[in-house]
Design a protein that fits this description.
The chain is of the alpha/beta class. The chain contains 8 helices and 7 strands, in the order βαβαβαβαβαβαααβ. The chain is globular.
């Protein structure tokens, strides 16, 4: 595997499972010093220990990205430990308020927006100054195919993810002159514990049913998303910013 991230510092939120974990493993294997953030302390410390056993420089910081003070403290720990930040993958998100829009109460709406949109705002707000001070770098925000489409029963999640794309584009224009690139992923179905556990059916059936909606006839593996994230964070993608990039098996094209 290449060493595109030698001497680079990369921060990953939602790092303990699914796409976040795959990205952490991929980017660490390419030489990055990785800082892992998530709420699950046991899983986070275990992943950091595993990456260190493979020779990586890995630090876990327990973080609730819906709390701005936590995000600020996380970025400060990156600065204190490494003195710089070169890339970030903002990966936290989940649909929590599901059902007809008229049945969603204000607390559920606020919680969905806090998790899926507010967390990205806080992350960008605190990551960008350190990236600027480091001479530039890149951020990838994980959106969703529902950032560019809609779905019945997913109003708050879709609204939040549409917001992530708008936030990404605006932030990219704010930071382009400073050499900070910011892009969003428009992901389709991905074989993660979240997908397998949240469809109300046995895990393998969930994977099959979700895959059937994609023109390629399957959902993605987390490693496929991680490879694309690594590319976007690397110096191979230095002319890409402000984009919402589909990695969705043809889902949004259909």
């Amino acid at each position: 595997m290449s060493a595109r991230f030698t001497d680079k510092v990369v921060l990953i939120t939602g790092a303990t499972s699914g796409m976040g974990r795959a990205a952490a493993e991929r980017i660490a294997a390419e030489g990055a010093k990785v800082v892992l953030a998530a709420r699950g302390e046991e899983a986070g410390e275990a992943l950091a220990s595993e990456l260190r056993s493979r020779g990586a420089d890995a630090l876990f910081v327990r973080t609730d990205v819906t709390a701005e003070a936590d995000v600020a403290a996380l970025v400060q720990q990156v600065a204190d430990r490494h003195g710089r930040l070169d890339g970030a993958f903002n990966n936290v998100g989940a649909a929590t308020a599901i059902g007809p829009l008229t049945d969603i109460d204000s607390k559920a709406w606020d919680a969905d927006l806090a998790l899926n949109l507010g967390s990205v705002f806080f992350s960008l707000k605190h990551q960008i100054p350190l990236l600027r001070a480091s001479g530039g770098g890149a951020i990838v925000n994980n959106a969703s195919n529902l950032a560019v489409t809609g779905a019945a029963g997913m109003a708050s999640y879709s609204a939040a993810k549409h917001g992530v794309v708008g936030l990404t584009r605006s932030a990219a224009l704010d930071t382009a002159a400073a050499g900070v690139r910011i892009n969003a992923l428009v992901t389709g179905g991905v074989d993660t514990p979240l997908l397998r556990g949240n469809m109300g059916m046995p895990p393998e059936e969930a994977v099959r049913v979700a895959g059937a909606h994609h023109p390629l006839g399957r959902i993605a593996q987390p490693s496929e998303i991680a490879a694309f994230v690594a590319f976007l964070l690397s110096d191979e993608a230095t002319f890409i910013t402000g984009a919402a990039l589909a990695i969705d098996g043809g889902l949004t094209a259909a």
